[in-house]
Amino acid sequence: MTSSPSPGLARFNTAGGPEAIALLHEVCASRSWGAAVTAARPYDTLDALLAASDAATAGLTPDDVAEAMAGHPPIGRPRPGDPVSAREQGGVRDSQREELLALNLAYQERHGHVFLICATGRTGDQMLAALKERIGNDPGTERETVRTELARINRVRLTRLVEAAKEDPA
Q: What is the pTM of this model?
């Protein structure tokens, strides 16, 4: 017995190519990732979509990862007017922002890119602790940690995308 995709997933599956790419760009700024996830449609389940996302994330080149990371504001400084980054960084207290920003600068100096962490569901204290721990990582370890965090962020955002589409009676 096969079940049909949820309404939100069905809507994503049937979106035109440019529309699907635009939706996915809101999830992850990597064009290669968006193209891979779009090309594998249709998806029968959210789990299949998430698995395709994980595979696409694993296949990203260093330049693709850099492109994806460029779409993420620093922890402690959500992009103004962006409800997604504000929601994702909701666990950060105002009193933590200065320390997060200072550590982010030190991290960027060491690693050459913004500190990336899946902030959803994490407190500011947890993000500070992770930043303090990861700032000392060697480049190879940190590259893999960034890829893992990117995959987590993509999963959270894809789930929201499909669930929002499910509720949108277009």
A: 0.85
